[in-house]
């Protein structure tokens, strides 16, 4: 199957929601209702398509203002609707992938898999440690 369909990119909505969710967090401005709505849209995408949502979030994550990002992220997690949505995502992710959840997160965090691209396998020390169970990233 190709990446484009009749209506455009098949990951377009997920990509756009992840972009705006990150854009509102990685800024000097404080969060407001628009930020909450955009982050809820992104979390909803992650609940519906967990792996694609995490890939899109990783693709659009920036670190222009790391202190502001942390501040906004922590404030966002204190909002009850966001906290509930994040808990639902974690529950959905663990239910869908009980055996492969750690491997999926490892591959996404190390950028072995991207939203539009899969890198060839590299047989390196980090991969060997993960296979032996010595590396567990969450």
What would you say this structure looks like, in words?
With 138 residues, this protein is mainly α. It is 63% helix and 3% strand. The chain contains 7 helices and 2 strands; from the N terminus they run ββααααααα. Strands 1-2 form a two-stranded antiparallel ribbon. Strand 1 and strand 2 (8-9) form a beta hairpin. Helix 2 (33-48) packs across helix 3 (50-60). The protein is globular, with a radius of gyration of 16 Å. It starts with a strand and ends in a 6-residue tail after the last helix. The model is unreliable at 1-7 (pLDDT under 50).
Assembly status? single chain
What number is the mean pLDDT? 86
Percent helix: 55-70%
Number of DSSP helical runs: 7
Class by alpha and beta content: mainly alpha
| Structure summary, number of beta strands | 2
* Straight-line N-to-C gap: 31 Å
Residues in β-strands, percent: under 5%
Instruction: Let me know the largest β-sheet.
Output: 2 strands, antiparallel
Low-confidence stretches: 1-7
How are the strands ordered across the major sheet?
A: 1-2
Radius of gyration over alpha carbons? Answer: 16 Å
- Cα shape: globular
- What string gives the helices and strands in order? EEHHHHHHH
Write a short abstract of this structure.
Helix content is 63%, strand content 3%. It has helices at residues 12-25, 33-48, 50-60, 66-77, 80-96, 101-109, 125-132; strands spanning 4-5, 8-9.
Features:
138 residues, mainly alpha, two-stranded antiparallel ribbon, 7 helices, 3% strand, globular, disordered N terminus
